[in-house]
Amino acid sequence: MDFEVKGVAIDIDGTITHKDRSLNLTAVSAIRRLKVPVVLATGNISCYARTTAKLIGVSDIVICENGGIVRFEYDGEDIILGDIKKCVKAVEKLKEYFDITVLDSEYRKSEVCLRRTFELEKGREVLLNEGFDDVKLIDSGFAYHIIDAKVSKGSALRFIAKKLNIREKDFVAIGDSENDIDLLKTAGIGVAVANADKKLKDIADIITTKKDGEGVVEALEFLGLIA
Questions:
Q1: DSSP string covering 9-76, please?
Q2: What's the chain's Rg over C-alpha atoms?
Q3: Can you tell me whether residue 177 is helix, strand or coil?
Q4: Please, what's the largest Cα pairwise distance for the chain?
Q5: How confident is the model at residue 1, as a pLDDT?
Q6: What is the pTM of this model?
Q7: CB < 8 Å & 24+ apart, contacts of 178-182
Q8: Is the pLDDT score of 197 beyond 70?
Q9: Which superfamily, per CATH, for 7-80+151-222?
Q10: Nearest 10 degrees: CA dihedral of 117, 120, 122, 126?
Q11: Helix orientation angle between 120-129 and 84-94, rounded to the nearest 10 degrees
Q12: pLDDT at 40 over 80
């Protein structure tokens, strides 16, 4: 590598978990050996991300709700970067076209999460035709998310990097889904695990030969971050 890695940003579900969403303990062991800050970046809610970080034993810095929320301390406060109001309006419009099931509504502060009960591209077409250009409909591989168009995991990483006084290009980012695209583009090196979405693989600098957590270990070893 031609630069010093000063941080690692890693997606959770499908990246450091098995298909059944249980943690890959081989990956956990490898991540614990890293000597740089580890930022977990997920489409899931804050308490999920913080608990996962605590169980793994990494820094308390997390990106939640696809970049709509960041948090720097386990017992601190969520920093809300996304506007949930515009997302709620978009959901109401989608309900006119599809059978919609909202998930985790009592916990989400910056976005709306939906069960994958309709075709993603048709949903995007509806929002585009109805003038909802201030939101994005994305697929995490586990659910659909309507997020504020100005936020992403990548923009959240830039926010965190600035606070830590680290260049975002000094981060390595690892993911598996479409919602990790901007995260990988923002980091200096983007890694897609073998089970990743094709769109993510298309923009990744490195594609591992192994899936999920085993792929994470492969990438960390290849980059010389662990022995």
A1: EEE-TTTTB-TTS-B-HHHHHHHHT-SS-EEEE-SS-HHHHHHHHHHHT--S-EEEGGGTEEESSTTS
A2: 17
A3: coil
A4: 54
A5: 53
A6: 0.93
A7: 178/138, 178/139, 178/140, 178/141, 179/43, 179/66, 179/138, 179/139, 179/140, 179/145, 179/152, 179/153, 180/11, 180/15, 180/41, 180/153, 181/154, 182/67, 182/152, 182/153, 182/154, 182/155
A8: yes
A9: HAD superfamily/HAD-like (3.40.50.1000)
A10: 100
A11: 110
A12: yes
**Containing H/E element for 111?**
strand 111-114
Q: What is 84-148's CATH topology?
A: Hypothetical Protein Ta0175; Chain: A, domain 2 (3.90.1070)
Q: Measuring CA to CA, how many Å separate 172 from each of 35, 161, 188, 214, 220? A: 13, 12, 6, 17, 9
CA distance 199 to 39: 22
Q: What is the pLDDT of residues 67-94, one digit of tens each?
A: 999 999 877 899 999 999 999 999 999 9
pLDDT at residue 220 is higher than 60: yes
In this prediction, residues 180-200 reach a mean pLDDT of: 97
Domain ranges in the chain are 7-80+151-222, 84-148
Domains 7-80+151-222 and 84-148 share a fold: no
Q: Which residues are known catalytic residues? A: 11
